[in-house]
Design brief:
The protein contains 8 helices and 13 strands. The chain is low in regular secondary structure. The radius of gyration is 21 Å and the shape is globular.
């Protein structure tokens, strides 16, 4: 991604000096990227010398490029004519779903499923049309708080300068111990000669920051992703090994969803109870409760393992972050501890999905499959084509579901 020749020389030199030749250095390299990748000194678009008209548009000059690729998170509208889904299947979801609205009939009533309901409406005025340039028209502030929707951008959640790091002491810091690589894939801080080298935090997520009036009060989420994560899950699942902290991160902008007064919301950030753990491990699909803790993991209903940042825990999470179904262990399986935790991302994706409220599945339907197939078209198909429904489920093989598969709430609650 947009390396200049001098940057490549410096990175190559660092790999030789530090003995890190086996590491692939990406644009951010776990921290701040090359300055001129995002800024220009002359003829800039904004007062911040950005190469695009706003922060999100700058991010999407790379992350919103055409086609499916590891770091792409927004499919351009031109690649999504009617019936064609977004390209990308990253764990966070493709912002392209924001530009996919559907007209359909439910019980004889004409219904519209607006694209802006499918995810976080980041403001990227210079990137694309539709709801990648406009704030959420229904919620002027974040549901559950006062964060202004008109100010939501990529850098509301991600630190564009990537200052957050895990040090060789196992602590979080924003200074000291130069960042030598990304922390998203299980790399660890290291010592080379007399120099302590840190790793970046997972996905450059914010921590101990104040952005547009809200404060990220805790350390960054701990998680490890497999290196090949933007992929179809038809043959095998993509398992991101979430450790801890994601619910606290989300609650920065949605605190009322995590409180105990005013409104009642689904629990999050708490250890799964014994019965919930037992249901999760036993539930295979509608009508089948023969699963075991050794094979119960479902990427459409992930969980946190309750592991904070330590070298041992990162190594554990890295061993679980797989794409070949070699690790499908559920809670309290020995491989995964009994501290498994329900989190916001157990039901939602972070960016956007093919369904309302960023849900991982269509929560507004009785059965996810009908007669062994994903429903399409009007009524139960909610106006989607077969390609769109399949992509919304990350191509998860429909034969692994029940013939008339009920809601995936049952993975934990087993009420079907």
């Amino acid at each position: 991604m947009k390396f200049y020749e001098s940057s490549l020389i410096l990175v190559a030199a660092a790999a030789v000096v530090f003995g890190l030749s086996g590491i692939s250095f990406a644009f951010h390299s776990g921290g701040v990227a090359e300055c001129t990748g995002c800024h220009q000194m002359h003829n800039a678009k904004t007062a911040n010398y950005l190469i695009a008209v706003d922060a999100s548009s700058t991010c999407l000059t790379c992350h919103g490029e055409s086609g499916q690729s590891s770091y792409h998170v927004a499919t351009p509208s031109a690649e999504m004519p009617a019936g064609t889904p977004p390209n990308n299947e990253t764990p966070g979801g493709d912002f392209g779903w924001l530009n996919k609205s559907y007209l359909f009939t439910v019980a004889g009533v004409a219904t519209t499923d607006f694209g802006w309901t499918h995810g976080h409406n980041i403001i990227a005025a210079g990137y694309d049309n539709g709801y990648l340039a406009n704030p959420d028209p229904e919620y002027p502030t974040a549901p559950g708080d006062t964060f202004p929707s008109a100010q939501l951008s990529c850098i509301s959640c991600h630190d564009q300068h990537g200052k957050g790091r895990w040090t060789t002491a196992g602590t979080f810091s924003k200074t000291g111990g130069a960042i030598w690589t990304s922390g998203s894939y299980g790399s660890l801080p290291t010592v080379v000669g007399s120099e302590n080298l840190s790793t970046g935090v997972y996905r450059l997520l914010r921590a101990y920051d104040t952005v547009d009036g809200v404060t990220f009060s805790g350390p960054p989420p701990v998680a490890v992703a497999p290196s090949s994560y933007n992929r179809s899950e038809f043959f095998s699942q993509t398992r991101v090994a979430y450790g801890s902290g994601m619910t606290n991160f989300c609650s920065t902008c949605h605190p009322s969803f995590h409180g105990t007064t005013g409104i009642i919301s689904h629990m999050a950030g708490v250890v799964m109870s014994g019965s919930i753990q037992a249901n999760y491990n036993s539930y295979v699909k509608t009508g089948n409760m023969t699963g075991t803790a050794a094979n119960s993991y479902l990427s459409l209903v992930p969980f946190e393992e309750g592991l904070s940042y330590t070298t041992a825990n990162i190594n554990t999470l890295k061993s679980h972050a797989q794409t070949d179904d070699s690790i499908l262990n559920g809670p309290a399986s020995g491989t995964v501890p009994a501290t498994a935790t329900v989190m916001c991302l157990s039901c939602h994706r972070a960016h956007a999905t093919g369904w309302k409220t960023m849900f991982r599945w269509n929560k507004d339907i009785t059965a996810l499959t009908i007669a062994g197939a994903y429903p399409t078209g009007n009524d139960n198909g909610f106006g989607r084509s077969s390609a769109e429904v399949s992509k919304a489920y990350y191509d998860y093989n429909v034969t692994k579901f029940g013939t008339n598969q009920s809601q995936l709430c049952n993975k934990c609650h087993a009420q079907d």
